Amino acid sequence: MSKYKLIILRHGEGAWNKENRFCSWVDQKLNSDGLEEARNCGRQLKALNFEFDLVFTSVLNRSIHTAWLILEELGQEWVPLESSWRLNERHYGALIGLNREKMALNHGEEQVKVWRRSYNVTPPPIDESHPYYHEIYNDRRYKVCDVALDQLPRSESLKEVLERLLPYWNERIAPEVLKGKTVLISAHGNSSRALLKHLEGISDEDIVNITLPTGVPILLELDENLHAVGPHQFLGDQEAIRAAIKKVEDQGKVKDSKK
Amino acid sequence: MSKYKLIILRHGEGAWNKENRFCSWVDQKLNSDGLEEAWNCGRQLKALNFEFDLVFTSVLNRSIHTAWLILKDQVPVESSWRLNERHYGALIGLNWEKMALNHGEEQVRVWRRSYNMTPPPTEESHPYYHEIYSDCRYKVCDMALDQLPRSESLKEVLERLLPYWNERIAPEVLKGKTVMLSAHGNSSRALLKHLEGISDEDIINITLPTGVLILLELDKKLRAVGPHQFLGDQKAIRDTIKKVDGQVKVKQGKK
Predict the structure, then answer these.
(1) At CA A204, angle to CA A198 and CA A207, rounded to 5?
(2) Where exactly is the site Transition state stabilizer (chain A) (predicted)?
């Protein structure tokens, strides 16, 4: 294995996953499936004898709880854990909380496909009239960020996710990886994809077709310039992994084919 | 309320509490009562509208899980061995009867009740020695593995805790941050002794209830402006203190 490596993880299900609604910055909890996915992930990492030096999460509770459950399985609750908004899920703006049908109704299916599948098209911003606006922006966690509250995103493309994630990677995470520390990043579907795009040099066109399974530890080996030395690898029981990938892809197909 | 304040919490029960065995540095989990105590504590805090800026715990999972249950999420948590429970050396894992058998009741009372008497150290032959010292958490401390305690008096607990208080915690309190320490019976007592100026003789008689939030208000020199206060339903707290005192009496009375 390369001297420099990273484990990235996409947390498991919350209630809105089953309803096909974008959770994004709404601070939803993991449901019982999501909790179990986190524990399984921990068990996988334990079987592989991972000893983490540092854990990074977003400020959304589902990424933190996933990390806690993994650390508990490993008996490594004491490992330092740091949370940043810069690892948050992509901000879906006005689309937050809407399900597929509602979105297609409001904006037209073709437009919604573009927002979901493009790399650099930003959905309409969330505004004060949005049902979840105040729940998000009144929360104290966004008053103590390294960016003023009114400067935080109101909507993002995947490109914009990477733009706000990269300074955190460069300043906080990368230096630790370069010290040879074993780092776990407990993140979200799009923030994980954005980081992998950067580290693996995946093109704007290709990244939209990459879906990460939930609750599966993703290993990325890096060279001394912190470029990937090969494609990311899923760790653990390969059959279970294939099933997890299929599950996420099938959910994507349901989303795309429902009219 | 004073500008500078601190919340300290002694975590709840683990399995060995009921068996009257010293858990100390053995990394035991909270039992269902201990988990419930943490949940209750979280509810109390919510009712009091406390919002923490920082939380400090030991590296023992029961103090971390207590903090996690109280917080629900995203307040920075920092863990240090310097907040660990008192190291009971060779007495770890033994219950009252066994200890009295091995060392004599009077000697055990002295170890438990004195401020500066250190029990015999744990050695490689001790059933829990390797479980403790092989764990990677003790390889990344700010002290080398072979320099970490093998036994401690309450005085020695304070001696290793104080640098951490002075360098990491106190500066945060002085910035006006709302800080919680999720700690253990003896590490909490040691810190309160220091901040409240409790004498060596008096500290022995102070028992802290489990799962009850302890508020200490401090002046700008970080000395207590009054005795520590227990937050929450006062009757429930009196019952909890009674329960802990009762357990101590059982430990002391049984022959």
Answers:
(1) 70
(2) 188
* DSSP alpha helix (H) spans, chain B: 15-18, 32-47, 61-71, 96-103, 105-113, 129-133, 154-164, 170-174, 185-196, 200-203, 234-253
pTM of the complete model: 0.91
- Verify whether residue B130 is a known catalytic residue: no
With tokens 């990937």, the residue in question is: A228
Task: Give the gap in angstroms from C-alpha B78 to the nearest C-alpha of chain A.
Answer: 7
Active site annotation includes B85: yes
Using an 8 Å Cβ cutoff, are B204 and B114 in contact? yes
Cα–Cα distance for residue pair A42/A48, rounded to 1 Å: 10
The reported pLDDT for the residue numbered A239 is 87
ipTM score assigned to the predicted complex: 0.88
- Taking only the tens place, the pLDDT of each residue in A205-229 is 999 888 898 999 999 999 999 999 9
Report the distance separating Cα A68 and Cα A201, nearest Å: 30
- Return the number of CB contacts < 8 Å for A and B: 37
- Average pLDDT of A162-179? 98
Interchain proximity B73–A82, CB inside 8 Å:
no
Interface test mutation site (partner A, options B35, B74, B83, B132, max chain A beta carbons within 10 A)? B74
Distance, CA of A137 to CA of A166 (rounded, Å):
23
A21 has pLDDT over 80 = yes
Tokens 């764990």 sit on residue: B135
Q: Which of B85, B126, B184, B228 is catalytic?
A: B85
Strands (E), A64-128: 81-83
A86 is in an annotated binding site: no
**Do the chains contact at B73 and A80, CB–CB below 8 Å?**
no
pLDDT 10s digits, A44-82:
999 999 999 999 999 999 999 999 999 999 999 999 999
Kindly tell me if the per-residue pLDDT of A186 is higher than 80: yes
Q: In what order do the strands lie in the sheet with B77-79?
A: B77-79, B54-57, B179-183, B4-10, B213-218, B229-231
Encode pLDDT of B132-182 as tens digits.
999 999 999 999 999 999 999 999 999 999 999 999 999 999 999 999 999
Of A51, A68, A141, the CB nearest to B136: A51
Which among B76, B92, B166 is positioned nearest to B126, based on CA atoms?
B92
CA-based nearest distance A31→chain B, Å: 15
Helix or strand (DSSP H, E) at B213: strand B213-218
DSSP-derived secondary structure letter, A11: -
Q: Which amino acid is at A86?
A: R
User: Residue A230, annotated ligand binder?
Assistant: no
Per-residue pLDDT reduced to its tens digit, B14-43: 888 878 888 999 999 999 999 999 998 988
